[in-house]
Amino acid sequence: MKTVKTAKVAEKASSSSGKKRSETRDRLIQCAIDILVNQGNEALTLDAVAQAAEVSKGGLLYHFPNKEALITGVIQHLIDDFNAAIESELAKEKGDEPGKWLRAYVRATFNSSQLPLALGSSLFAAVSISLNQETVKQIDTQISKWQHNLYNCGLDPTQASIVYLAAEGLWATEMFEIAPSQTLRKQILKRLLRMTHEVH
Questions:
Q1: CA 85, CA 109: separation in Å to the nearest integer?
Q2: How far, in Å, CA of 105 to CA of 108, rounded?
Q3: How many other β-carbons are positioned within 10 Å of the β-carbon of residue 193?
Q4: Rounded to two decimals, what is the model's pTM?
Q5: CA max distance for the chain
Q6: Comparing C-alpha atoms, which of 22, 102, 97 is closest to residue 63?
Q7: Is 191 left (phi over 0), alpha (psi -120 to 50) or beta?
Q8: Whole-angstrom distance, CA of residue 47 vs CA of residue 32
Q9: Phi and psi (nearest 5°) for 178?
Q10: How far is the C-alpha of 184 from the C-alpha of 76, rounded, in Å?
Q11: How many C-beta atoms surround the C-beta of residue 54 within 10 A?
Q12: For 108-152, how does the pLDDT look when each residue is reduced to its tens digit (9 = 90+)?
């Protein structure tokens, strides 16, 4: 009995420790994002992030051994958030009608808060300067996964690509703050979703 209790206590302590590490990592990433948005890539240093997150330098290095790893973490965080939004939208789809993944992708794109111009520009500068192959591979891998789902959603590939590229175009224009009006935006969303129901 004592052994079982000891094992449960150890398991609970391990779970609590893991949650704390995850919370610390998330806080570091959020502080990095805040610095990128408000101060730019040049201000993004490990010391600045550690100070903003109120974490020791050693604590930061445990999660991110260098700036490149931190940038990779930020990008993965943004990707994970968007994938979660897609999954949330996908759960609203009923049945197996063609185009369900693409509809979820489009709604997630329109509903998600887009990258601020400052963050997008800073991330682009950071990746360009570091030329981190791991980060480039990470982005390429995710895009490949999205395209795989796109081409296997049951729609004509050309039709699906038009919808996908239109949604991506909206993302880009909103990041650069040249998006259409809210009224036109709603009409574009409605038209794109209608196109995902058109099977050729």
A1: 8
A2: 5
A3: 16
A4: 0.77
A5: 67
A6: 22
A7: alpha
A8: 11
A9: -130, 35
A10: 31
A11: 10
A12: 988 875 566 567 666 776 766 665 677 778 888 888 999 999 999
